[in-house]
Write a structure and sequence with these properties.
heterotrimer, A mainly alpha (318), B mainly alpha (298), C alpha/beta (258), A: 318 residues, mainly alpha, B: 298 residues, two-stranded antiparallel sheet, 11 helices, 4 strands
Chain lengths: 318, 298, 258
């Protein structure tokens, strides 16, 4: 297992770096979406997998980031790259504000409020509030990314942009795991009362999880807007949130798990597109089976990654 | 005033349907702490099953006997599906983390929804006109026979359910299992039977709800269950999930609210307002209107 | 003078119609090993829950080092140097022993939320320092061999030690133990006794609930006896042993000594 983790990661990076050159246009697009969805799923994992909060509305923040980029670019003429900080920070702030009144709710009630936020967002955007969200058709005709004078119009360049964003996200996830804040999320998920009683301000950390998850999802939104040079409400409907939710649970709350989850829940259905009508019927069975066989996900979270100097003699953890 | 009364009438009708469906969610949640996301799709399925019974089995008869037969047969069919669902998708996950069962439920939802599509096709079908189109006009406020029947039958069923749960031994077994499954088992209650029973009751009520939806809206599509189910689930949450009178109350309130929003504001904002209302209620009453705080023993 | 003193005055806690703690007053002094004893259901854990912020008592005052802590949240109270263990073990069972103990370092750690996203040399230093503190606790409680083992898979007696190690990792001034000997066999209880003395030698004041009378008599300096939420006696172990009201409370209600 250790070797797999040590060599698996660099191997994955190399494969993903070479991959787009081997694919045709349609599959390159699928690969880009794979990268984007992985970023969103990782952001969802922070809230659902690590902090244990029943969030079924992540498409909200994903959509916010996408729309912010679209609006700033098409209405106010901002260059795409310049929209990135706003597409991260505004959803993050929203995440913090929305989380505040709801993080104390019991699981299923929290679930429903996150669904609510998602649906309100989609409806607001569909109804073209303020005249800037483009209504049911969305906004299109966005610019390409302009990097030091180069226009990144090719699909390949979009892929590498998405890839860079994924790497950045993985970097942040790793930092989170090896930090006080990251551990606090695990503690409060496992036993909130015990966490409070050992000195953890669980409320702050729950809100932090929402804010961080929202910001990362917002960044993914920018990449989405770049890929299609457009945004529309349907891409961020509640059903997408259900997808991200399922990815984390089917794949498991770990980085390999999330990658597997996106592959199973998104790429596989794409591969079986020819079986159009039967696709999702079978897929539903697959989901049920996956949960029965691996209730904690294909590749669940593992603990026990402690500094080596603490591990004496022969007792090794997971 | 006219608009008010009209929307009141519409709201009560829609509310009764929400309530019937919400009961299915709340009963399953009460005992199993599981959100049965497939419930909405079963409700939709019952409308299609009813349609087929009408066209294939009864040769399009619309007598009272035929209508009763459609209701009974659909309810029985959906009760069987419910039991099958529980056995295949939920029972294996009884010991698993709660969220795993939720994903399984989502999978089951996909199966049922797409199952409907595979059998009946993706296009909208028209539900038969089983109830004569009789209307009464009270000075601008139009009420149909269908509305009266839906409201009346729903109320009868809800009262019957309430009495069953509160006054019978089986009902007590259900209530006991909802409070503490293990303790109920130790007291000699066969919790597996209780669970089967709640799926039977929930699915049957949902089936009736589905048929009402068919009668009221006439047009039925394979994916209408998802949206409808979500609303009914909201209603159950609003009333306090696990709480039977709560589901009834939540359903009625939701129906009224939606009717009034559609009447006074606009239907394009109905969803948004509904959810804002829900979020506000939950902030003030974190466990729903009639919900109870579950104390934790430290 | 803000001595390390815990002073409860007229504390009352009700749950609906039931008065679980009734007008309770006692004082724990710096460096004491103070015991709260009483028959089952007497309200002892409820008192602890009031002190540590899990419940808010309806009436009365709870002062720690001169500051009123009644009404504070649990984490705020930990921040002031009071840590507790639970009657039913509440460890993070999927996580390793070391990670569990590390949770005790949370409040002392100097990292902020930003360091969860990006590390700095200071945050890396902080991580290392805290893991070294964990190492100290692992050694003190003889848990080094279990450092990477998930706590859920450990024997009960070991889990109890982990819980205490976690609490001690906070560097508390007052350690509150809720039935620390529950479920332990005789030799484990002896070990617990020694540990409590060693903890007191480090300068930590100890407040504990216990049922095991032999242990209570050995380890405590002073006791308060509670029945039906009310104090029925206080004094040294020798005084309590002879107190007729105490004897009546124990023999009258149930014979529960091992």
């Amino acid at each position: 297992m250790k070797n797999l983790e040590r060599f698996g990661f660099p191997a994955f990076i190399i494969v993903m770096a070479i991959l787009p050159n081997l694919l045709n246009s349609r599959w390159q697009a699928v690969a880009i979406t794979f990268l984007i969805f992985t970023v969103v799923a990782l952001s969802q994992d922070i809230i659902l997998g690590k902090a244990g909060m029943f969030n079924m509305g992540q498409a909200l923040f994903f959509g916010m980031g996408a729309y912010i980029t679209a609006i700033l670019n098409s209405h106010y003429g901002w260059p795409m790259l310049a929209t990135i900080p706003v597409a991260i920070i505004l959803p993050a702030i929203f995440g913090i504000l929305l989380a505040g009144p709801i993080v104390h709710l019991r699981g299923d009630y929290l679930l429903v409020t996150t669904i609510g936020f998602n649906i309100v967002f989609v409806q607001v955007v569909q109804n073209n509030l303020g005249g800037i969200t483009g209504g049911p058709n969305g906004i299109f005709g966005l610019d390409a990314i302009n990097l030091f004078g180069m226009q990144l119009t090719s699909q390949l360049s979009v892929y590498y942009f998405a890839f860079a964003v994924l790497l950045l996200t993985l970097f942040v996830m790793r930092n989170l795991e090896k930090s006080k804040a990251g551990r606090a999320l695990h503690y409060l998920r496992e036993d909130q009362l015990a966490a409070e009683s050992i000195g953890i301000n669980t409320r702050i950390y729950k809100i932090f999880a929402f804010g961080l998850g929202a910001g990362i999802a917002g960044l993914a939104g920018t990449v989405f807007a770049t890929q299609y040079a457009a945004v529309s409400p349907e891409a961020f409907e509640f059903i997408q949130s259900v997808l991200f939710f399922s990815i984390v649970l089917v794949g498991g709350s770990s980085i390999p798990g999330i990658l597997l989850g996106v592959f199973v829940m998104f790429v596989l259905p794409e591969i079986f597109r020819e079986f159009a009508t039967w696709r999702f019927f079978i897929f539903g069975f697959a989901m049920i089976l996956a949960m029965i066989l691996r209730p904690r996900g294909i590749w669940p979270a593992s603990f026990g990654k402690i500094p080596k100097f603490l591990i004496k003699e022969s007792n090794h953890g997971a | 005033m006219d608009i008010f009364l009209q929307q009141l009438a519409n709201g009560l009708t829609i509310g009764s349907m929400f309530a019937l469906v919400a009961l299915g969610y709340t009963m399953v949640y009460g005992v199993m702490k599981l959100i049965n996301f497939a419930h909405g799709d079963m409700v939709a399925a019952s409308a299609f099953v009813g349609l087929t019974i009408y066209t294939q089995v009864l040769g399009q008869a619309t007598s009272l006997g035929a209508v009763i037969a459609i209701f009974l047969l659909s309810a029985i069919a959906m009760a069987c599906v419910g039991i099958l669902l529980e056995r295949l998708a939920y029972r294996p996950l009884r010991q698993a983390p709660r969220l795993s069962a939720v994903v399984s439920a989502l999978g089951a939802s996909l199966v049922i929804q797409n199952g409907i599509m595979l059998v009946w096709g993706p296009q909208m079908r028209i539900f038969p006109e089983l109830v004569p189109q009789v209307y009464w006009d009270f000075g601008g406020v139009v009420i149909s026979l269908i509305q009266v029947l839906i409201l009346a039958l729903s109320l009868i069923l809800m009262v019957a359910l309430y009495l069953f749960v509160e006054k019978t031994r089986m009902g007590a077994a259900i209530r006991a299992s909802a409070i503490d499954q293990d303790a109920a088992r130790l007291m000699g209650i066969n919790v597996n039977n209780v669970i089967a029973l709640i799926f039977v009751i929930g699915s049957s009520l949902g089936a009736v709800g589905g048929l009402f939806i068919g009668l009221y809206y006439r047009g039925i599509t394979f994916n209408m269950g998802w949206q409808y189910g979500l609303y009914a689930f909201i209603a159950a949450i609003l009333g306090g999930i696990g709480n039977i009178p709560g589901a009834m109350l939540g359903g009625m309130l939701l129906g009224l609210f939606q009717a009034f929003i559609a009447g006074y504001v606009s239907s394009t904002w109905a969803d948004a307002f509904t959810f804002i209302l829900l979020i506000l209620i939950l902030i003030v009453r974190p466990t729903g209107l009639l919900g109870e705080r579950v104390a934790e023993k430290v | 003078m803000a001595h390390n003193e815990l002073i409860l005055t007229n504390v009352t806690k009700r749950f609906g119609g039931l008065t679980a703690v009734d007008d309770l007053s006692f004082t724990v002094r710096d460096g004491q090993i103070y015991g709260i004893i009483g028959p089952n259901g007497a309200g002892k854990t409820t008192v602890f829950n009031c002190i540590t912020g899990i419940y808010k008592s309806e009436e009365g005052s709870i002062k720690w080092r001169g500051e009123e802590i009644r009404g504070m949240t649990p984490y705020q109270i930990v921040d002031r140097g009071i840590v507790r263990t639970f009657q039913t073990i509440r460890l993070f069972s999927q996580m390793s022993v070391a990670e569990n103990i590390m949770s005790g370092r949370h409040i002392k750690s100097k990292q902020n939320l930003f360091h969860g996203i990006l590390h700095t040399p200071a945050s890396r230093r902080d991580e290392l320092d805290n893991w070294h503190k964990v190492e100290e606790q692992l050694e003190f409680f003889q848990l080094s061999e279990f450092a990477a083992t998930p706590t859920g898979s450990l024997p009960y007696g070991v889990q109890r030690r982990v819980e205490m190690a976690r609490a001690m990792a906070v560097d508390p001034t007052l350690l509150i133990l809720d039935e620390p000997a529950a479920g332990l066999n005789d030799s484990e209880t002896m070990g617990l006794l020694e540990t409590i003395f060693k903890i007191r030698d480090k300068g930590v004041t100890v407040l504990l609930i216990e049922h095991d009378m032999d242990m209570v008599m050995e380890v405590t300096d002073y006791l308060t006896v509670i029945n039906f939420g009310k104090k029925i006696a206080e004094g040294t172990p020798e005084e309590i042993q002879k107190n007729p009201a105490v004897i009546e409370a124990y023999l009258g209600s149930e014979d529960d000594d091992e």
